[in-house]
Amino acid sequence: MKLWQGNEACVEGAIAAGARFYAGYPITPSTEIAEIASRRLPPQGGKFIQMEDEIGGIAAMIGASVGGAKAFTATSGPGFSLMQENLGYAAMAEIPCVLVNVQRMGPSTGVATAPAQGDVMQARWGTHGDHPAIVLCPSSVEEVYYLTIEAFNLSEMLRQPVILLMDEVVGHMRENIAEPDRTKIRVIDRSKPEPDQLYLPYAEDSDVSPFAPFGEGYAYNITGLAHDEKGFPTNDGEVVRRLLDRLHQKIENNLSELPGIEEAEAADADLVILCYGCTARPAREAVRLARDSGLSVGYVRLRTLWPFPYERIAALADKKSILVPEMNMGQIIGEVERAVKGKTEVVGLWRYDGELFNPEEILKKIREVI
Amino acid sequence: MRTIEKMQIPAENVAIVSGIGCSSRAAGYLNFQTLHTTHGRALAFATGLKMVRPELTIFVLMGDGDSTAIGGNHFIHTARRNIDVNAIIFNNQIYGMTGGQASPLTPQGKKGSTAPFGCTERNFDIMKLAMGAGATFAARSTTYHLKLLDKMIEEGVNNKGFSIVEAMTYCPTGFGRQNKSGSAAAMLNWYKDHAVPVEKAAVSDAKTVKERITIGIHHQEQEAEFVSEYEKIIESQRQKSGGSS
Ligand SMILES: Cc1ncc(C[n+]2csc(CCOP(=O)(O)OP(=O)(O)O)c2C)c(N)n1
User: Fold this and answer.
1) Distance between CA atoms of A39 and A46, rounded to whole angstroms?
2) Does the pLDDT at position B27 exceed 90?
3) Using an 8 Å Cβ cutoff, are A152 and A17 in contact?
4) Distance in angstroms (rounded) separating the CA atoms of residues B102 and A223
5) Whole-angstrom distance, CA of residue A300 vs CA of residue A317
6) Does the beta-carbon distance from A63 to B31 stay under 8 Å?
């Protein structure tokens, strides 16, 4: 057994996934990730740098990934906003990297130490332009460890920045977890080009091209400008459209690789609670309390927020109602409504006072709705 | 390019990183590993790359706005760290790509499209900025003094630490027209007539120095290089943990 804090599990997961570079800027409640990374990376031959701001943090992370290292950074709301431009760069230039956002209350500096889930939409739409996003959301310390590994795997496999959207509760909570069995962990590395073949870093005939690190003899161009198969800038509308289509398709074609949903007692339930992150525990407890008092309630938890699992959630339209508790003023609920298209009742329960839900208030809402 | 050839650095050991601007587009025209990044951030990208690939000789190409306005923070911190990358700043004293707005290097009093009555703000002196921030090599030349420019770049590469070479270029459309500087050739000639070697400038009186451009090596010192120092830490930490993870 190991007693880990969520932020510590994140660093340990990153190291297990092969991460050897961290660049970032301290911000509560993510700071422990930087502190632990600064201690844990050097003995692994890895490197850590505290940059002058979050913009530099994400830029150095991308630079390190271009050099071939698995790299990550961590931040919270205000810093996440500063990272948005280069997050789009990584999506456009297809640079694998993992960005951890341990959410705190906003907007602005908000309440630095209070939990919230206010960055769900920023994680999807924060950077400019039409770009794909992969956002994973753990709800326990153990899951932080495994989803961090999955974040790196997806990022390497798809040449795509992946966001691990944690929250203050999950980041700071301490839990005993079973010693991870490193031999059973799946670790995926980016594929490299075959030597002696013409290297197209952005080939159109496959979803994802191999990624040649700088320093291994491939002379080519990486840019955030719209580019052709060789990586050179282009204004040709047809080429640009095909590029954007491919960026989205590479993820659409690999949805089965994304962490799926967790559910309990949902199959026969009249009402399901749909939740994610730190709201999962009180929600789970509310289901138990509801079942104890004879109510037909189940639970569905998202582990991947984006791409949103529309099809799977559409299947919940056979329920009488869906209750969506969130630590914000209603963000993911809009996607649930889009998925069920008015075929069933969708009810939100929101908290934005920096306090975690307690099971009784969720139960109270269940009684109102059912 | 001439410097890379002359110094016989193998092409696969060269990486070019650039920001956003006319000057930064140069990266896309060079047959090396080229990383064209975001406006102002080239040095931060280069920092990550250099840390994981210390064997690379990295050139960072930036404009004056790119390096000292939006990228000013990265500029001073990269200098402070003394990481072994070679920054080449194309100083045309204006925002070229976006069409002639004033930059932090537009001389006070000169016009830009956003400074129609002349720039009220004082301009930076990149050499002083570099020195103040701790760069271990800072030199300036102009596009008229190409031999010197090559030499400065070469000396910069030889410096194990952060090197800055400021290349005074010109933008006849963005800067020249608004300031009646004349043709490209006239602007080039201006550099010919107004540049003095920095060693000589040191002994001239302050007034004449102000109206001139000093060229040559403005500062050079030896300091420990960031990545090499970090690698010593890795070595000692690895020994402590017995090489295992
Ligand atoms: C975040 C951001 N802000 C603004 C711009 C627009 N922009 C592109 S180049 C540039 C200025 C370039 O001037 P300089 O760095 O002096 O280079 P030059 O074009 O003169 O070589 C600006 C403001 C941008 N691309 N990104």
Assistant:
1) 10
2) no
3) yes
4) 26
5) 13
6) no
Task: Give helix A77-93 / helix A54-66 axis angle, nearest 10°.
Answer: 30
Written out in words, the top-level CATH class of the domain with range B2-242 is: alpha beta
Chain B CB contacts of A23 below 8 Å = 47-48
Domain boundaries, chain B: 2-242
Return the structure tokens found at B225: 């290089």
Which residue matches tokens 């289509």? A245
Q: Is A241 helix (H, G, I), strand (E, B) or coil?
A: helix
pLDDT of B244 reads: 52
Tokens representing residue A250 in the block: 């590479």
In Å, how far are A85, A135, A150, A240, A245 from A130, measured between CA atoms? 13, 16, 24, 12, 10
- A197 Cβ contact list (under 8 Å, min separation 6): none
Place of tokens 């005939």: A205
pLDDT band at residue B121 using 50, 70 and 90 as cut-offs = very high
Q: Which of A26, A28, A24 is nearest to A14 (CA)?
A: A24
A311-333 pLDDT, tens digit each: 999 999 999 999 999 999 999 99
Q: Is residue A61 helix, strand or coil?
A: helix
- B3-10, Cβ contacts within 8 angstroms, sequence gap of 24 or more: B3/B150, B3/B153, B3/B154, B3/B157, B4/B57, B6/B150, B6/B154, B7/B154, B7/B157, B9/B57, B9/B157
Q: Can you spell out the DSSP letters for A335-357?
A: HHHHHHTTSSEEEEEE--SS---
Q: What is the bridge-based pairing of β-strands A262-264 and A297-301?
A: antiparallel
* CA A88/CA B217 separation, integer angstroms: 39
Q: From CA B64, how far away is CA B144, in angstroms rounded?
A: 18
| CA A275/CA A323 separation, integer angstroms | 8
Take residue B113 and report the two structure tokens written for it: 């499209």
Contacts of A230 (CB under 8 A, 6+ apart): A200, A201, A202, A220, A221
Pocket perturbation via mutation, ligand 1, pick of B98, B126, B175 by most ligand atoms within 8 A of CB: B98
Q: The dihedral of CA A231, A236, A240, A242: what is its sign?
A: negative
Q: In chain A, what are the domains?
A: 1-259 (3.40.50.970), 261-369 (3.40.50.920)
Contact B56 A89 (CB under 8 A): no
ipTM of predicted complex: 0.97
Interface of B with A in 179-238 (CB under 8 A): 230, 233-234, 237-238
SS3 A245: helix
Nearest-CA residue for atom 13 of ligand 1: B95
Q: Two tokens at A370?
A: 């059912």
CB of B190 within 6 A of ligand 1: the answer is no
Amino acid (1-letter code) at residue A103 = Q
Looking at residue A134, the DSSP 8-state letter turns out to be E
Instruction: Please report which confidence band the pLDDT of residue B207 belongs to, taking 50, 70 and 90 as the band edges.
Output: low
Q: Which residues contact B5 (CB under 8 A, 6 or more apart)?
A: none
Q: Which residue is closest in CA terms to ligand 1's atom 24?
A: B39
The answer to whether the CB of B61 is under 6 A from ligand 1 is: no
Beta-strand ranges (E) seen in chain A are: 2-5, 19-24, 47-50, 70-75, 97-103, 134-136, 161-167, 174-177, 221-223, 262-264, 271-275, 297-301, 304-306, 321-326, 345-350
Mark the ranges of chain A whose per-residue pLDDT is less than 50: none
pTM above 0.95, yes or no: yes
